Amino acid sequence: MKFDSKKHLILPALLATTLTMSGCGYNTLQAQDEQTAAAWSEVVNQYQRRADLVPNLVQVVERYASHEQAVFGEVAEARAKVGSVQLTPELLNDPQAMQQYQQAQGQMTSALSRLMMVSERYPELKADALFQDLQAQLEGTENRITVARNRYIEEVRSYNTTVRQFPTNLTAKVFGMQPKPNFTVDNEVAIATAPQVNFGGNNTSNDGK
């Protein structure tokens, strides 16, 4: 049997490289990067869930408040903007893209808040069973959005800490892994609690404005 010296040299080298990368946090960085991507996917899913509720919600409101065209137009514009601003996991490192996405979703939140406030002027609308069901679905979705965004914020904080700490910052630099932009401070305050979508009585909007 012929002795293959090259093979015997390659295997220890691969083992040493694996141990070195593991010790410098490469595996941790990769795992946290995947976790942030998964957390962001859930944020997107819940925002899409909200967007999907909008047409049915507008339709039932229009039955009782057909002349509220300014509000309907604002909702339609906000929904179109949300649909045009997509933020894939590959773009999460772009602060400008994150800001545009936040602004679009903030506009949608504000428009929906005003749409829900219309019901205060129409008792028949508030009593409509379909409207009540859609209102409950919207409230549940806003709660899910809050949970998903808070989870994403924490995942990004954890990842960014690893990227900046020594010695994992050296590994991150070698592999081009940069800190990720997060939701702004103002936005984090706004999402500490879910927006109120039931505007009965003395409730007020909590859309971060």
UniProtKB/TrEMBL annotation:
Protein keywords: Membrane, Transmembrane, Transmembrane helix
Entry's localization field: Membrane
InterPro entries recorded: LemA-like_dom_sf (IPR023353), MamQ_LemA (IPR007156)
Highest taxon above the source species: Bacteria
Name of the protein: LemA family
Family: Belongs to the LemA family.
Keyword Thylakoid applies: no
Pfam families: LemA (PF04011)
Any Gene Ontology CC annotation: membrane
Positions in coiled-coil regions: none
Membrane topology: Single-pass membrane protein
